[in-house]
Amino acid sequence: MPFKHYSAYVLPFRFLKFLAIVVICILAFVSYVYLKNRPSYTLYNNFTDAEHADSLSEINNSHDGKKYVYFRQLQGAGFNNQAQEILLFHHLALMTSRVYVYQPFVWRPRGEKSLVPLSAFLRGPTNGAISSALFEEVCPEREIKHVNLRTTFDKQWEHALSALNGDDRCIMVDDWIFNWEYLASTGIHPIWPSFQKYLGNHFKWSKHVIDIVDRTQAKLGLRPKLSAPDAEPYIALHIRRGDFKGHCEYLARDRVGFTTWATLPLLQDSVLAPALDTGNITSVMEHCYPTLYRILDAVTVQAKRNPNVRRLHVLHDGAWDHPLVYLQYYKLVEALTNVGWAERNGWNGSMIKVTQTADVPIGWGEADWAVCVDVELGRRAQAFIGNGYSSLTTQVVALRLGDGGNASDITFV
Predict the structure, then answer these.
(1) Tens-digit pLDDT profile for residues 336-361
(2) DSSP-based three-state secondary structure for 400
(3) The model's pTM
(4) Which end of the chain is flanked by fewer CB atoms within 10 Å, N or C?
C-alpha cells in the first residue's frame, strides 16, 4: 500500500515537471522570435529626428514660391501596397512642381508602435520633401485648399496633373485616388512613360536595406546583373502563397485581373500561357494561385532563355503561421535540382543551387526590412518570375523596367 501511494505521487509530479519544461521552452521560443523580430525603436526614433531636422532645413531654405501637396494615404496595408502608392504620390508631386509631404509607413502586423519612419525604408520620396509632422508649420489650416481628385479611370491621371498644377500654395487631397480598382485598370497606363523615368532618377532604398542586400548576396553567392564576377548570376522566383488563396478566390468571383504594371501592354507576352481570362474563374485562380506544376513551367521558360544561369533564389511568404509554404518550396527544389526532370523538360542541366527568403541573413531587429530585401533581390536577378496579382511582383517588375531591363526577362505565372 505505501508503494502505491508513492507511485501515485511520483507520476503526477513527473508529468507536471515535463509540462513545466514544455511551457518554459515555448515561452523561450516565443520570446526569442519576438525579440529577434522587434525593431530597434531607438533607431526608428533617430530616423524620425533626422526627418524632422531635414524637413526644417528644407522649409528654412525654401523660397516663397514653393507649393506643397498632402495626399490621403493608404493606412496599414502590406508594405508594397503602401510603397507603390507613395512612389506614385511623390512622382505626381514632382510632375506638378510641388513639395511632397510624406507620411510614415503603417506597419500592419504590429499594433505596438505601428507608425515607422518612411526614410528607414525609402530615401527617394523624402529627398527635397517635408515630413507631415511639419506640414502645419508651412501651411496653416486657413491657407490649405482641400480638393477631391477622383474621376473616371481614363481621365484620372490627367485630371490630377491639371488640378495640382494650379497656383494654390497648399493643397490637401481628401479622397483616395490610387484605389485598388484604379490600380487594376488600364487607366494607369498613361502614367508609365514618366513613371519609368521617375524610378530611374528618384528611386532609392535606405542604407539599411542595401547593407542587408549586399550581405545576402555575399553570403549566398548571388551575383547582381553584370557585376561581381566571383559570384553566380541567378534567376529570382516570387511565389505568393500563405493566406493568398482566399484572396484569389475573392478576386476570381469578382473577375479581377492583374494589378498595376503587370497590366502593361508591353508585358502581355510575359504571361505564361494560357493567357489570363478574367471572365473565367478557373483562369483567374490558375494565374493568382498557380499549382506547383505551373510554377515549374514558368521557371522552365526563363531557364531555357538563360541556359548558363543555374542558380535560383525563391522569394516567398513562409512563416510560422504559414508552414506549408516551406513544404511547397522543398517540393519545388526537389524537382528543380533533379537532373532527369531537367532533361525531360528540355533544360541544359538542372539548377545547381536553390536558395530562399529564409536564407537571408536577417539580424536582430532587422525583420522589418526583409520584404525590401526580397524586392531588391528580385530587381537584381538575371531574370524574374512572379505573380501578376501581387504588389511585390509588380514592384520588382517596375524597378527592373525602370533600370532599362527587358520584358523578355520577366515571366508571370
Answers:
(1) 999 999 999 999 999 999 999 999 99
(2) helix
(3) 0.89
(4) N
